[in-house]
Amino acid sequence: MADAVRTHGLFKRYGPQVAVAGVDLVVPAGSFAGLVGPNGAGKTTTLSMITGLLRPDGGSAEVDGFHVWRDPVQVKARIGVLPEGLRLFERLSGRELLLYNGRLRGLPKADVERRAGELLAVMDLADAADKLVVDYSTGMRKKIGLAAALLHNPSVLFLDEPFEGVDPVSANTLTDVLRRFTSSGSTVIFSSHVMDLVERLCDWVSVMSAGHIVAQGPLADVRGGRSLNQAFLDLVGGPRGQGQAGLDWLGARTGAHPGEHPGARTGAQPGEQPGARPGGQP
Amino acid sequence: MSTVALFAQLKLRLLAGNLRGDVQRTIGFVFSLIAAIGVAGIGFLLMSLLRLAPDDIASSLVIVAFTFFLIGWMIVPLLAFGLDDTLDPAKLWLLPLPTGRLAVGLFTASVTGVWPVAILIVTFGALAGLASGVGGFLLGVPAVLLQFALCIVTSRLITTALSGVLRSRRGRDVLALSVLFVVVLAQLPNLLMNQGFSDPGTMLRQMAAVLRWTPPGMAAHAIADGGLVGLAELVFVALLVVVLAWLWVKALGRALVTPDASTQAASVRRESGLVDRVLPDGPLAAVVTKELKYYRREPRFRVGWFSAVFVTAMLAFSLTRNGPGGEGLPVVLTAFGALMIALQSGNAFGIDGRSLWMNAVAFGSERDLATDLAGRHLANAVVAVPLIAVLAVLGGLFTGHPAMIVPAALSGWGALGLGLGVGSVTSVVVPYTVPERMNAFSGAAPGQGGLAFVSSIGTMLGIALLSLPFVLPVVFGWVWVCVAAPFYGLLAEALGRRLAARIGYARLPDLLAAVSKAS
Questions:
Q1: Which site among A62, B166, B271, B346 is 20 to 30 Å from B278 CA-CA?
Q2: Nearest-CA residue of chain B relative to A96?
Q3: For position B21, what pLDDT does the model report?
Q4: Looking at the partner chain, which of A51, A103, A273 has a beta carbon nearest the beta carbon of B283?
Q5: Which top-level group of life is the source organism from (chain B) (predicted)?
Q6: Burial of B159 by CB count in 10 Å (0-12 exposed, 13-18 middle, 19+ buried)?
Q7: Residue A111: its chain B contacts at CB < 8 A?
Q8: Across the interface, do B363 and A76 touch by the CB < 8 Å criterion?
C-alpha cells in the first residue's frame, strides 16, 4: 500500500538557526507511527509544515499522494490535526467547538451534532460539554482537541505531543480511541518524548535529532533488540558516562552547608532548610 | 538588608533579561526611560515653581497632586501590568522566606524601576515648592518619603489582595473590562470643561478643602505647615503606612495558600439556533454563530464595542454643546460611529489569535476564507446595523434635525460596509496579535505596536477616503446622494472581501504566524 506521508528534503530555518535540515519522513498507510526526538529536534516544525500550517523553505511533502502546498483541498480534507500548545477557540464550550469545527468543513449540522455527541461521550467529556474550553484542564483540552481532529473522519491524523500533561485516565481514553482509529486502516502520526508509550503503541518509529531523521522504520528494526529508550539514547547521542562530576554536594547530609549559593540562606526557618527530608509529614 | 539587595538585583536582572536580544523592546525601553526622565525633570520643575504661586493655591495644588499620585498608584499597575514576575507572590512562595522578609523584598522590587524613581523625584519637587522655614524642610523630607511609601504599600496591598482574582479567568475578564474605565476617565477633563466652571481657582479650593483630610492631603499639608499640626499629621500618615503594611503582609500570607478555583465554572446555555433558522446550514452559519458568541463572551470584543459607542457619544457631546450644529451633523456623527464600529474589523483575525490554525487546516481554497470573512461581516452587521440606526435617531433628535435621521442611517450603513471591506483587506495585509490580557495602554503584542498603528491608520484613512463620495455631498446639502450609500457600502464590502480572500489565502501561514505571537 502507498505511503500515508512522504516528505523530500523538507527544510526550514528561523534566522540563522536551521530548525529542520532536509527531512525525508516516510510513514506507511495504516500505521501507528511515533515521531520521537529530543527537545528542539524539529518535530513540531516538521509536523506544522506537513499539515500546511507553516510554509517550508525547501523540499516537499505529500499526504496520501497529494502535494500539501499544490493540492491543499485534497490534503486538508484528509488530515486531522492536534497542534502543540492546546490552542483552541477558548470562548466556545466543548460542544460548540466541535459543532463549529465540523460545520466549517461543510458537514451538515445534524451529522455534526450526532458525531459530536458520540465523541464527547467516548472522551468522557459529556459532563463538561457545555463548559467553556477556557476553563478546561490540560487533559480535557487534549481530548476535545482530538475529538475536533477526528470529527471529519480524516485518513491521517497528526498529533503533536498528545500525551503531554495528560493524566493516566485521560491518556488511556486517548490511546483507546487512537487504537480503534488505526485498526480501521487509518494512519496516526504523533510526536512524543515518552519512549515507553511509543514502544507500547507504535508499529513504526521515526527518530529525529537536530533537524534530521536519524532512523526510521518498523519498531522492531529501529529498536534492534534493545529497549527503545536505549536505542534512542544511542541514536541521538545522550550522555554515556556518569555525568555527575561537580555534584558532590547533592545528597550530602553532613550538617554544614557546603558552598555559598544564593538559594541557601542561613538563618531561614529550620523547617525549610534545604536539608529537610522530603516526605517528612507533620 | 541582604533581602533588599537581592530583590533589587532580581528586578534589575528581570528588566535586563526582558530586553536582551529584542531590538523593538529595547527601543521601547529607551523611549520609556526618556519619558520617565522627562516626567521627573518637568514634574520636579513644575512642583518647585509653585514657590512663585500664592501660598494657598500652591498648597491646594500639592494636596490635589498627592491625592492623584496615590490614586494613580492604586489603578495603573492593575491596568497596565496585571501581575509581573516580581510582583506575583505565587512565583516566590517556594523560596524559604518568612512573610515579613518577602514583604520587604516585594517592596524593594516595586520601588526598583524607572517610573517609581521618577515619581519619587516629582514628589520631592513638592518639598522645593512648598516647604518654608526649617520646620517645613525637617517635616518635608519624611512627609515626601511617607507619601511615597503610602503609594507603594497601598498599590502592593491592592495587587496582592486581588492576586487570587487576577490569576483566575473570571477575574482577568473583569479586569479587561476595567480598560473601559480608563477610556471613560480619559474623557473626564473634557466633561468637566464642558460643565463650564467659571473659576478654576474656586474649584481647586473646593477640591483641596476636602482632599486635605485624606492621607496624601495630610502629607502635603504637613510640608506647607511645618509646625506641630504638620507633625501630628505625619505621625498619623506613618501609622497608616504601618497598618497598611501589616495588612499587606497578612494578605500576602493568605494569597500564598489560597488555591485558584477558576476552573469550577458554570456551564453555558445551549444555543437557541436562531441563526440556523435564517441562514442555510453550512460554514457561513457556523462562523456567524461563533462570532456572535464571541461578541458576548470575549472581553476584548465587549471592550471594542463599548468603546466605539462611547467615543461616538463623546464626539456628539462635544460637537453639540455649543448649540445645535448644521444639518450635516447627524450624518457625520453616524458615519463616524459606523467608522468606529468598523475599525474593530481592521484586524479581524487578531482576537482568534493562536486558535486560528483550526480555520487554517480546514480552509482548502480562497472561497473558504471568503466565506469566513462573510460570516464575520454578517455577525458584525447583525449588531451594527440596528446600533447605527439608533445612533442616527439619537443624532437627529439631539441636533434638532429629525429630517436627517434617514439620510444619517443610510450613510452610516454605507460607511459600515466600506469599513468592513477595507478592514478585511487590512486584516490580511497587516495582521497582528491582540494580547490575551488587555492592557489599557497597548492593543498589540510586544513588538507589534507599529503594525497595530499602521493597521488602524490604514483602515481609518481607507474608510475616510472611500466615504467622501457620499458624506461630502450630504454635508453640502445634496441629501438624496445617501440613498446610494448602502449599495456603495455593500459593493465595497464584496470587493474588499474578495480581494482579502485572494491575498489572505496566499499568505495563510504568515497570517497565522502574525496573529499567534506570544503576548
A1: B346
A2: B290
A3: 67
A4: A103
A5: Bacteria
A6: buried
A7: none
A8: yes
